[in-house]
Amino acid sequence: MARNASTGTRIGFTLLAWVIALLLFSPILWTLLTAFKTEAEAIAARPTFFPQTFTLENFAAVQQRSDYIKHATNSVIVSLGSTLLGLLIGIPAAWAMAFAPTRRTKDVLMWMLSTKMMPAVGVLIPIYLIFRDLRLLDTVHGLTIIMTLINLPIIIWMLYTYFKEIPVDILEASRMDGAELWNEIVHVLVPMAVPGIASTLLLNVILAWNEAFWSITLTSGRAGTLTAFISSFSSPQGLFLAKLSAASLLAIAPILLLGWFSQKQLVRGLTFGAVK
């Protein structure tokens, strides 16, 4: 039953929501405006809100100093590759947990999620040594593997939550018609779970795109993604806020557009199964 609220309460909560939204958006707005300022204006003692001298020279300087296209291509390959590889592993795993559970299924799910709460630096040395011995350092496929591993618990958890909402009777009917396990998953389960799989794909592409710790630690030049691209502009030689803002804007623009156009799908995927 809907709760009645006075007009003053609704206006108050609406204003509060707008204030919080503006606070969250303000760093992005500052980055956007600073990217079009000159360096002198960006570090001026009396900062200006809008650029007094609108310039695109920062973007030209960024492209001249670092190859943006190469880093953007690496980001696309790593984020899409790790997500597709994670779905390839996660769909059968989530099917097993949703439709053939054991007494330990819940414990396994909680254990997988607990690995996401562990600080990444805690396993830095063993992973770095493994990557060094397997010659995976500064390679795109090595970075794709580590992104798959760190996001796999989220993929399996989201798919498991979505699969639990699918009536098991439909899968049993396909078995009675002679469908083997592979056909049951590919031709029956996956088509019914397309919205959940799409939400999982979008969220994990964003997570892999924004991941910085492993990108900076395991790459140096050839396989660097856009997070490493931004990090390279944190120069100890001086303040280059305008160029750093231009580099940041170029790095976050693709994923911001993706999030904007897919926000309904993302919200649906994140809230699915939250209320039962």
Rg calculated over all Cα atoms? 23 Å
| Derived structural class | mainly alpha
Total count of helical runs of at least 4 residues: 14
| N-to-C series of helices and strands | HHHHHHHHHHHHHH
Cα-to-Cα separation, first versus last residue: 15 Å
- Can you summarize the main beta sheet? none
Proportion of beta-strand residues? under 5%
How many E-type strands?
0
Q: What do the pLDDT scores average to? A: 85
Helix content bin: over 70%
CA-based shape: globular
Unreliable segments of 5+ consecutive residues: none
Q: Can you walk me through this structure?
A:
- The chain is mainly alpha-helical and 276 residues long.
- It is 72% helix and 0% strand.
- The chain is built from 14 helices and no strands.
- The two termini are 15 Å apart.
- The mean pLDDT is 85.
